[in-house]
Amino acid sequence: MDISSIGQIISTVGFPIAMCIIMAWYVKYTTDLHREDTNTREESRKQEVNDITKALNNNTLVLQKLVDILDASEVDLTK
Predict the structure, then answer these.
(1) Mind listing the pLDDT tens digit for each residue in 17-71?
(2) Is 1 helix (H, G, I), strand (E, B) or coil?
(3) Which of 35, 36, 8 lies closest to 22, judged by CA?
């Protein structure tokens, strides 16, 4: 939207209607920007959750191996 088109809209439909159209365009524009930002953040959070899940699963495996080793050494001590 440039100045000449805004002036033409105002002279054609009147000031109140032109302002309603401009405000509607502004609301749509800001909503679209907000939606894009939200989608970007959501994708980032999904990746972070996947990374944390992998780390947690790896830690669980290591802890299980440590428990198995401790159980095996405990069995050796009782013999």
Answers:
(1) 888 888 999 999 999 999 999 999 999 999 999 999 999 999 999 999 999 998 8
(2) coil
(3) 8
Placement of tokens 């990374």 in the chain: 51
Its sign, for the CA torsion 67, 73, 77, 79, is positive
Q: How far apart are CA 2 and CA 56, in angstroms?
A: 54
Q: φ, ψ for residue 2 (rounded to 5)? A: -110, 175
pTM metric for this prediction = 0.56
Instruction: For Cα atoms 24, 33, 44, give the angle at the middle one, nearest 5 degrees.
Output: 155
